[in-house]
Amino acid sequence: MKNLMKNIKRNNRMKKYNHQYALRLALTASLFSTALVSINVAQAQALNQLTFGPQEEQRGQRLDGIVAFVGNDVITLKEFEAIGKDKAKLERLIMRKLLVQTAKSHNLSVGDTALNIAIDKLKAKGKRVARETLREELLIQKLQQQVVNSLVKISDQEVNTAVERELKQVGGRVRLIDILVPVPQSADSDTLNTAKEKTQRMLKALKAKDNPQAVASANGARYSDLGWVDLAQIPSSFSQALIDAPANTYLKPLVDRDGVHLIKVLARKIGKVQAVKIPETRVSHILIKGDTPNAKARIDELYQQLQRGADFAELAKLHSQDRGSAVNGGDLAWVLPGKMVADFEAVMDQTPVGKISRPFKSQFGYHILKVDQRRQRENSSKDALIQQARQKIFAQKAEEEWELWLTQLRDESHVRIVQ
User: Fold this and answer.
1) Counting beta carbons within 10 angstroms of the beta carbon of residue 165, is it exposed (0 to 12), middle (13 to 18) or buried (19 or more)?
2) According to the per-residue pLDDT averaged within each range, which of 243-252, 267-276, 297-306 is highest?
3) How far does Cα 192 stand from its chain's mean position?
4) Residue 1: pLDDT above 60?
5) How far is CA 139 from the centre of its chain?
């Protein structure tokens, strides 16, 4: 009987539990169904708001404060406001970003040492520029130098023509005699070489006894007294040879379409050519190639050894990875302006004679340099004219080529301005 009563009570509890469970399950199903209905309604409303196919462009909206997309960079609304929302300045900012991106894509960089030197120069002039802004300006300068050096080509004919113009401005006359060994224009190289050998024999004879008419007659050559000649009126190959030639001397044989000439300067009245003084630096360096932490650690250790009194030349011989100069103790001999990469030249120019630079980085790796001497070398009149002519031609062509290159860069770059 007791067991029966227990079973009845247990059955009643189970029925009650099952009933409560069923109620909860029904309620959950009802809520879930309601939620599904709500979601479906919301989705339907959203779908009704969608329009497929081409849409009219919505202008005047800036995405997250972006004014322009420039290559892999952007110009923000804040940057645009900083330049007064000026469209001309915006275009310059676009070009600046394109140039910096291009420089980096060509693996150009500006090291901290070169940047610090540039900052010090500006401070000495009382000027201040934000560090990263100045780094970008130096980076663009390096890119410009690389571009124009690769594009500008100057022929000897262009230089000769420019020298002729300079001679006309400078003026100058020389009194000449000429001994010509005629050579037909159609002559082969053997005939020309034979004529050159004859002029060399005559030159030896003239040094022994300076009787040009007799020497010319004995060798079947033509003697001419040219009198006073304007340098600007003769071929540039002759005028360039004559501009520095001292009086009462024979020039080295000169060849033109008539043959081989032996020319003697009897007297000269040369206008003044502005001499050009060129600074030269005698410099040595130690190079550790690469741009790795290990390379930086090695150059820093060598610098510490130098600070403790180690001999620069000996360290260069043992450790420098520029083997061409290492065998000479790192000596690079006399260096002219523009012959070294910009990072190297900037440090070299700022390092006093007899001093050692701190480690710095260039495109070749890490360097330490030592400035041994400096001098000002004065060019001859001929060299000065040629250098002046070449510099003028280069400056003119460089400006033209750079402008064309900038236009091409702008046209071919991905730039989108959000109006």
Assistant:
1) middle
2) 297-306
3) 43
4) no
5) 9
**Domain 172-270 and domain 277-378 have a common topology:** yes
CATH architecture classification, 277-378: Roll (3.10)
For residues 274 and 385, the answer to whether their CB atoms sit within 8 Å is no
Residue identified by tokens 């934000």 is 130
Q: What is the mean pLDDT of the chain?
A: 81
Do the bridges between strand 254-256 and strand 259-270 make them parallel or antiparallel, or are there none, so unpaired? antiparallel
Six-digit token string for 304:
């510490």
Strand, helix or coil at 230? Answer: strand
Per DSSP, 49 falls in state H
Fold annotation for 172-270: Chitinase A; domain 3 (3.10.50)
**Integer-rounded Cα radius of gyration of the chain:** 41
Whether the pTM exceeds 0.70: the reply is no
Q: Are 226 and 140 in contact (CB under 8 A)?
A: no
pLDDT digit string, tens, across residues 153-179: 988 888 877 776 676 666 678 899 999
